[in-house]
């Protein structure tokens, strides 16, 4: 299976900024980039666009514009472009099955734009098979500091955050960047304490040392695999969303895990990923874990 990065484009400034970010990431990783634009003929209210050939020509124009812009800025990049005859959600989810990374544009502070308008964002991010990066646009350019850490959230045991940590370390190694791993914790209600958890916390010397030990253990295999990546460990009392957002201003990339839950209204992403996608000023990578059973 050939490895590649895929960027969805729809003609918006946000998607063009995402394509540029994807191009630079592809160069960092030594991978080709494929630009995709989904189009399927449907009757529209505008009479001039009722003709399928006219709509198809417009779709090809969107793709050619994005391809030309990326090729001009990154002539050394292995680049392909494709119009996919399907709905945006179906097309993007299909590409995510074999892509290393799917990149999309985001307006932030509200609904994710273009391909992720309204419920599209939840459907794609919650069900994609590969990591999805939402790239914020600022005046047509990706909103990303020229230098900064890869900020990643860690929670639970070592296995719970392994996919997000793997992606964060891979990205940092490819970019020559450092990783800041954040573990947020809160004081549980009294009834939540069990004899086993109290014993573990006591053995660690208290609740804070217990959380610090949990973070060290989760990071240990990735430190060993990527010994040249500098790592900062950060444990803070507070909600995971608030703690991560407070450190995202100077980050190159914020990485969060995604354990999608399927309910009556479809797949839902967690509250931390939701907050990061809407409020973080830097690009946000949502990395899938295994999908939970229906609830």
TrEMBL record:
Coiled coil: none annotated. It holds the Pfam family Usp. Residues 1-136, 150-288 form the UspA domain. Belongs to the universal stress protein A family. This is Universal stress protein UspA. It comes from Streptomyces showdoensis. The lineage of its organism: Bacteria, Bacillati, Actinomycetota, Actinomycetes, Kitasatosporales.
């Amino acid at each position: 299976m050939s490895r590649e990065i895929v960027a969805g484009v729809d003609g918006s400034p946000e998607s063009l900024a995402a394509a540029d970010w994807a191009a630079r990431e592809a160069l960092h990783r030594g991978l080709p980039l494929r630009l995709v634009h989904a189009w399927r003929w449907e009757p529209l209210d505008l009479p001039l666009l009722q003709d399928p050939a006219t709509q198809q020509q417009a779709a090809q124009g969107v793709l050619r514009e994005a391809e030309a812009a990326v090729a001009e800025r990154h002539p050394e990049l292995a680049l392909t472009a494709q119009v996919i005859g399907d709905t945006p959600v179906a097309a993007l989810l299909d590409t995510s099955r074999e892509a290393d990374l799917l990149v999309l544009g985001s307006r932030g502070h509200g609904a994710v734009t273009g391909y992720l308008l309204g419920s599209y964002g939840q459907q794609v991010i919650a069900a994609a098979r590969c990591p999805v990066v939402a790239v914020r646009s600022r005046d047509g350019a990706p909103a990303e500091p020229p230098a900064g850490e890869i900020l990643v959230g860690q929670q639970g045991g070592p296995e719970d955050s392994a996919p997000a940590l793997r992606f964060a370390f891979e990205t940092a190694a490819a970019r020559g960047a450092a990783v800041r791993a954040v573990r947020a914790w809160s004081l549980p209600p009294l009834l939540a304490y069990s004899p086993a958890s109290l014993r573990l916390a006591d053995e660690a010397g208290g609740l804070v040392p217990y959380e610090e030990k949990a973070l060290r253990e989760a990071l240990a295999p990735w430190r060993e695999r990527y010994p040249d990546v500098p790592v900062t460990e950060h444990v803070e009392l507070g909600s995971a969303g608030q703690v991560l957002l407070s450190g995202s201003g100077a980050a190159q990339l914020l990485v969060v895990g995604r354990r999608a839950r399927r309910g009556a209204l479809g797949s839902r992403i967690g509250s931390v990923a939701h907050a990061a996608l809407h409020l973080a000023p830097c690009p946000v990578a949502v990395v899938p874990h295994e999908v939970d059973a229906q609830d």
